[in-house]
């Protein structure tokens, strides 16, 4: 599957968002693909947990290897959350994503140490990533202002506009409250990714508010681990 196939999936009507479940390993990827989803999006926190690391602490070699295994396990497009790019130069980052078979990526605008990156410098870096990737990668630019910044929608819109101008295909204002989504939708051209809880009501509400695409972060992996924990406790009892 190609990035163009994946990009076309984002051409959505209001109220009909693209729902992308988040596999954390090859087995979960197969389950989700077999359920009929047209594409998948790995969560870095879920993959980290599966590999035994804290969120943000996965060595890049292990993250890319995990993405490669997930891609190999399914026949649908896979987008990879590669956090802030691991300090890799754009050419190496793009090369490793393509080598792993990913058709898209998440790239966040915080530094992993609790601080936001300068938006213009980050936009310049995204421009370089886009130049290296051409049309071969769908770039989902994460906007972290609701996670560690001011929480001001105006700030999120300003950053998002810079990233779209730099070549991002989609922006992801992580942890943005659903009630501010109409304001974001009004100020941002192009697809907007929102995170939902693992329930139909959350998905439906975000779709009504204007989300183009919906992901779950590590929610599915944590849901699965909770279910296994409940089973283990029941069996032990």
Radius of gyration: 17 Å
Estimate the strand proportion.
5-15%
Could you name the ranges where pLDDT drops below 50 across 5 or more consecutive residues?
A: none
Silhouette: globular
Strand order of the largest sheet: 2-3-4-5-6
Largest sheet: 5 strands, parallel
User: From N to C, what is the helix and strand string?
Assistant: HEHEHHEHEHEHHEHEHEH
Average pLDDT: 96
Structural class: alpha/beta
Distance between the termini: 46 Å
DSSP helical segment count: 11
The helical percent reads 40-55%
Overall number of strands: 8
Question: Explain this structure to me?
Answer:
With 237 residues, this protein is of the alpha/beta class. 49% of the residues lie in helices and 12% in strands. Strands 2-3-4-5-6 form a 5-stranded parallel beta sheet. Helix 10 links the parallel strand 7 and strand 8. Helix 3 runs parallel beside helix 11 and helix 4 runs parallel beside helix 5. The model has no long low-confidence stretch (mean pLDDT 96).
Provide key terms for this protein:
237 residues, five-stranded parallel β-sheet, 11 helices
Task: Summarize, please.
The protein has helices at residues 3-8, 26-34, 44-51, 60-73, 90-100, 119-133, 145-148, 153-165, 181-187, 200-209, 219-236, and strands spanning 18-19, 40-41, 78-81, 104-108, 138-143, 170-173, 193-195, 213-215. With 237 residues, it is of the alpha/beta class.
């Amino acid at each position: 599957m190609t990035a163009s196939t994946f990009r076309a999936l984002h051409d959505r009507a209001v109220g009909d968002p693209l729902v992308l479940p988040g596999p954390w390993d090859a087995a979960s990827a197969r389950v989700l693909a077999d359920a009929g989803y047209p594409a998948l999006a790995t969560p870095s926190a879920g993959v980290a947990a599966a590999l035994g690391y804290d969120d943000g602490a996965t060595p890049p070699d292990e993250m890319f290897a995990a993405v490669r295994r997930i891609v190999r396990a399914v026949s649908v497009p896979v987008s990879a959350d590669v956090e802030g790019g691991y300090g890799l130069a754009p050419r190496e980052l793009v090369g490793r994503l393509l080598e792993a078979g990913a058709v898209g990526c998440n790239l966040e605008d915080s530094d992993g140490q609790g601080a936001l990156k300068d938006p213009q410098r980050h936009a310049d870096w995204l421009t370089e990533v886009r130049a290296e990737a051409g049309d071969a990668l769908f770039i989902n630019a994460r906007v972290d202002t609701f996670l560690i910044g001011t929480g001001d929608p105006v700030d999120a819109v300003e950053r998002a506009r810079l990233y779209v101008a730099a070549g991002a295909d989609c922006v992801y204002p992580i942890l943005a409250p659903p009630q501010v989504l109409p304001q974001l939708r009004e100020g941002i051209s192009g697809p907007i990714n929102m995170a939902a809880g693992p329930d139909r009501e959350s998905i439906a509400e975000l779709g009504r508010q204007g989300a183009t695409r919906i992901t779950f972060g590590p929610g599915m992996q944590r849901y699965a681990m909770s279910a296994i924990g409940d089973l283990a406790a029941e069996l032990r009892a």
